[in-house]
Amino acid sequence: MIERLLPSAVVAVEAFGDVPGEPVFPGEEQFVARAVDSRRREFVTARRCARAALAEIGHAPVAIPRARRGAPGWPAGVVGSITHCPGYRAAAVARSGDPAAIGIDAEPNDPLPDDAGELVIIDEERDMLDRLRTTDPAVHWDRLLFSAKESVFKAWYPLTRRELDFTEARVDLDPVHERFTAGIRIDGTRLDGGAPLTRLNGRFLVSRGLVVTAVVVPGHPVSCTA
C-alpha cells in the first residue's frame, strides 16, 4: 500500500499484523525491555519490515537501534523511516544520496482527539479542514493533517537535527491529487549543505481504515564517469 506514495528508488515493506511470539532481534532488546506487550509486538514487526527492506537494497540483517527522538539508527549509507499504528507497520529505505531523507507515517482514520488538535492545527489550516470535511466526511482530515506533519518531521529531523513543532509547519492538503505541501516557518538550514528546507512535498492515501502519508526529500545522485 505505502509503496504507491514513494519513488522507485525507495523500497517499502509493510505488515498488517504481528507474528505471535516473534522474538526481539539481537541487539534491540534494550529498546523494548520495559514495553507493554502491544508496544513490543509493533516494535518487533516494524523492525522486521525494515530489515526486509534493507535486504532488498543489499544489506545484511542488522540491529536497528532507537536513536535520538526515537529515530531509527540506520546503517551507514542508508536513509529511511518507520511507522506503526494499530493494525499496520511499515518501513521505507533507500541508499543515501537520492533521496536525501524519507518520512512515512500511518494513523487510524479516526478523529484526532480535541486536545491533540489544539497542539497540531494552526489557524490558517482550520478553514481548509472545514471545507474538506464538507467535501468528503468519510476522511478524518484532522488526523490526516497530523500524519502529514509527522512525515514532515521524520524527513526534516535527520537533515537538520533540530526540533520542528507542529505549529512551525503549515500544511495544505490537495484531495484531488492526494498530495500535500508543508511550508516550514523556521530556519531550514541543513547539516549536509543541501538547499534549506523551506517547503516539503508529500503524498497521502486513505485505505483499509488508515491514513498513510509520505515525504521524500530529493537528493543529488553522484554521477559516474569513465
Automatic annotation (TrEMBL):
<dbReference type="InterPro" id="IPR008278">
    <property type="entry name" value="4-PPantetheinyl_Trfase_dom"/>
</dbReference>
<protein>
    <submittedName>
        <fullName>4'-phosphopantetheinyl transferase EntD (Siderophore biosynthesis)</fullName>
    </submittedName>
</protein>
<feature type="binding site">
    <location>
        <position position="47"/>
    </location>
    <ligand>
        <name>CoA</name>
    </ligand>
</feature>
<feature type="binding site">
    <location>
        <position position="164"/>
    </location>
    <ligand>
        <name>CoA</name>
    </ligand>
</feature>
<feature type="binding site">
    <location>
        <position position="39"/>
    </location>
    <ligand>
        <name>CoA</name>
    </ligand>
</feature>
<keyword id="KW-0808">Transferase</keyword>
<feature type="binding site">
    <location>
        <begin position="83"/>
        <end position="84"/>
    </location>
    <ligand>
        <name>CoA</name>
    </ligand>
</feature>
<feature type="binding site">
    <location>
        <position position="107"/>
    </location>
    <ligand>
        <name>Mg(2+)</name>
    </ligand>
</feature>
<dbReference type="Pfam" id="PF01648">
    <property type="entry name" value="ACPS"/>
</dbReference>
<dbReference type="GO" id="GO:0005886">
    <property type="term" value="C:plasma membrane"/>
</dbReference>
<dbReference type="GO" id="GO:0000287">
    <property type="term" value="F:magnesium ion binding"/>
</dbReference>
<feature type="binding site">
    <location>
        <position position="150"/>
    </location>
    <ligand>
        <name>CoA</name>
    </ligand>
</feature>
<dbReference type="Pfam" id="PF17837">
    <property type="entry name" value="4PPT_N"/>
</dbReference>
<dbReference type="InterPro" id="IPR037143">
    <property type="entry name" value="4-PPantetheinyl_Trfase_dom_sf"/>
</dbReference>
<feature type="domain" description="4'-phosphopantetheinyl transferase N-terminal">
    <location>
        <begin position="28"/>
        <end position="94"/>
    </location>
</feature>
<feature type="binding site">
    <location>
        <position position="105"/>
    </location>
    <ligand>
        <name>Mg(2+)</name>
    </ligand>
</feature>
<feature type="binding site">
    <location>
        <position position="154"/>
    </location>
    <ligand>
        <name>CoA</name>
    </ligand>
</feature>
<feature type="binding site">
    <location>
        <position position="105"/>
    </location>
    <ligand>
        <name>CoA</name>
    </ligand>
</feature>
<dbReference type="GO" id="GO:0008897">
    <property type="term" value="F:holo-[acyl-carrier-protein] synthase activity"/>
</dbReference>
<keyword id="KW-0479">Metal-binding</keyword>
<dbReference type="GO" id="GO:0009239">
    <property type="term" value="P:enterobactin biosynthetic process"/>
</dbReference>
<feature type="binding site">
    <location>
        <position position="106"/>
    </location>
    <ligand>
        <name>Mg(2+)</name>
    </ligand>
</feature>
<feature type="domain" description="4'-phosphopantetheinyl transferase">
    <location>
        <begin position="101"/>
        <end position="177"/>
    </location>
</feature>
<dbReference type="InterPro" id="IPR003542">
    <property type="entry name" value="Enbac_synth_compD-like"/>
</dbReference>
<dbReference type="InterPro" id="IPR041354">
    <property type="entry name" value="4PPT_N"/>
</dbReference>
<dbReference type="GO" id="GO:0009366">
    <property type="term" value="C:enterobactin synthetase complex"/>
</dbReference>
<keyword id="KW-0460">Magnesium</keyword>
